[in-house]
Amino acid sequence: MVYKGARTSCTWSRTIVILCVLFLALPIAYILFSSANHLYQVGGADLFASMRLSKGLEDAKKVELAAALSKRPLNLVFEFDIRPKDQGGLIYEFDWIRHMILGGVNRPVRTWVSSPSTRAQKMNDSLLVFLFKPKGGSGYFNEMRQEGYTNLGAYHMGNELFDQDTSFYKDLDYVFYNYYDVELLRREPKSTYIPLGLKAGFCQVNPTTLVPSNERRHVCSFMGSIRSNRQMMLDAFAAANLSCVLSIDKEWGDPTQLTTIEYRAVLLESTFALAPWGNNPETLRMYEALEAGAIPIYQNYSIIEANRDFVLHGLPNWPGLIVNSWEEATLLIPLYLQDKKLILQLQADVIN
Questions:
Q1: Distance CA 34, CA 27 (A)
Q2: What is the mean pLDDT of residues 200-226?
């Protein structure tokens, strides 16, 4: 009897302890639940929704990536040396074409470079990049059609003066070309204008790291060769006694010119970047100035040929300055330098 009573006593003791714990725990649980519910009501819902959205986006990206990888590769074929011009190659735009223009095609991209003495390998799903004209001549793409190749595109570079043959455009599924021309777009419905972009190695610049325009070391700068009306620009700035950084190349692609890193460093410290015409009104420095947060100054090309003024037609929201003469530019620059608010707004337009 003693053993049984002791066991009953212990059972009751455990029961009392459990009840006490529950008595204390229930209010605590209620407080925690109320706090969680309050958190959900005042912002936790957004947090949880954001977590679900992030997970959903992550899953969607995985699905998108899997879908992209399952597609046939695009064969990007260059018919020339893709090294930068100042390093022995023929162009500056390889990075721009491969990683910017084609960076969002949502399918694998394979890069091929044909040797200087041979024509590019014929392939389906190919985008042939060439300077001036394809090595196979104007009948090359028609020849590929007759042989059964499909999904053919071209990236036509170097037609600055619009004096090159475009009759082969009709044999392609699509054509990209540099240098804006209203008449070419009307005449060739398969064609798409592509801006020149950035020089290889220039790289994209984080806007938050840019020096404000009113605190930059150089009032203005120009780095390039002398052609078109550029000497008139230099004469106008020399007469106005404006302190600009000038680096004049002997020719386009001069190996003794500033390196791309040096060139970029100057633009990053320039309030204004002079962007005169070359063989065409569109130049790489216009886009590089925008990337560096320098305010580009462009001479209105409509006074020469309105249909080929890419700022007027191709970039209607141009954020830089447009002048009718370089003498006008020399008068505007001092006025802008005196107005901190205005010059910072100009730079904000350039960056955004």
A1: 10
A2: 93
* Residue 74 contacts residue 127 (beta carbons within 8 Å): yes
Same domain, 168 and 225: no
Whether residue 282 lies inside any domain: the answer is yes
Residues 211 and 342 in one domain: yes
What gap in Å lies between CA 261 and CA 216, rounded to an integer?
Answer: 17
The encoded tokens of residue 273 equal 């970047």
Query: Considering just the CA atoms, what is the radius of gyration of the chain in Å?
Result: 32
Contacts of 339 (CB under 8 A, 6+ apart): none
Which domain range does residue 220 map to? Answer: 207-351
Phi–psi pair at 153, nearest 5 degrees: -135, 165
Same domain for 137 and 219, yes or no, is no
312-341 pLDDT, tens digit each: 876 778 889 999 999 999 999 999 999 999
Which alpha helices (DSSP H) does 40-80 contain, by range?
Answer: 45-69
pLDDT in tens, 153-180: 999 999 999 999 999 999 999 999 999 9
Start-to-end CA span in the chain (Å): 91
Average of pLDDT values for 210-221? Answer: 96
> Encoding tokens for residue 182?
């209203």
Listed residues 193, 225, 246: the one ending a domain:
193
Question: Which of the 8 DSSP states describes residue 186?
Answer: H
Nearest to 244 by CA among 312, 310, 297, 292: 297
Question: Left, alpha or beta for 4 (phi > 0: left; psi -120 to 50: alpha)?
Answer: alpha
More confident residue, 9 or 274: 274
Instruction: Pull the structure tokens for residue 148.
Output: 């059964």
Q: Is the pLDDT of residue 286 over 60?
A: yes
In a domain, 176, yes or no: yes
Please tell me which residue, 321 or 4, carries the higher pLDDT value.
321
Give the pLDDT confidence score for residue 60 in this predicted structure.
62
The number of helix segments (H) and strand segments (E) in the chain equals 12, 11
- Residue 47 confidence (pLDDT) above 90: no
* Number of separate domains in the chain: 2
The pair of three-digit structure tokens given for residue 217, joined into one six-digit string = 């070391």
- From 188, 73, 171, select the one nearest 126 (Cα to Cα): 73
Q: What are the tokens at 164?
A: 């090159």
Residue 224: its H or E element: strand 218-225
